[in-house]
Amino acid sequence: MAEVTRRVTEVRAFHNSLAEISQHVSNLESRLSKEQLRKFVETLLKHTRIFAYGAGRSGLVAKAFVQRLNHIEIQAFFIGDTFTPSFGKEDILVVISGSGDTESTFCFASKAKTMGGKVAVLTAHGESRIAAVGDYLVLVPGKTRLVETRSVAPFTSLFDVAALATLDSVVAELMRRKGVSEELILRLHASLE
User: Fold this and answer.
1) CATH superfamily of 2-188
2) Which of 20, 32, 134, 192 is most buried (most C-beta within 10 Å)?
3) Each residue's pLDDT tens digit in the chain (193 positions)?
4) Where are the alpha helices (DSSP H) in 115-154?
5) H-assigned helices in the chain
6) Rounded to an integer, what is the distance from CA 128 to the centroid of its chain?
């Protein structure tokens, strides 16, 4: 019995973190603005090419979003990939920054604006300088590198997971509006794996 108790306490941080992350995602829908999401989805449908960027873990979320968009036949590119084409005034850049203050993300968002394109911002901080650059804002709650609240989940995990869940759910809405099924994703999914 003592051995079982010891093993359970050895992974206590795991259980506490998982519970916190699960609860955060469970409460996410009620904390997102339906109006912000509606505008975001509608603007994505208006653009023929979508570019995305985020630094660090936000970049991984942006890359996952780009992959999903390409799976439903929406041209999407991650800024910095070697095959990313030039950005133009007909395009939209989706940037992800929990703090809203990431230097590289701010630079890309600002440049996209000066080039005449649109910018959509996913951040936990609506008063941030990156949010101020955006044409569209989606406030995604979660602890960021600014460490606004105490959390047992590591560093920016709550924002990262919330941003991923939000963008995957946006793709589900895009699929519905485009009349796309998972069969298309299966057909376009990597086959050399």
Assistant:
1) Glucose-6-phosphate isomerase like protein; domain 1 (3.40.50.10490)
2) 134
3) 555 555 556 778 888 888 888 888 899 999 999 999 999 999 999 998 999 999 999 999 999 999 999 999 999 999 999 999 999 999 999 999 999 999 999 999 999 999 999 999 999 999 999 999 999 999 999 877 655 667 767 667 889 999 999 999 999 999 999 998 888 777 877 777 7
4) 129-133
5) 2-10, 12-26, 28-31, 34-46, 57-71, 103-114, 129-133, 157-178, 182-188
6) 17
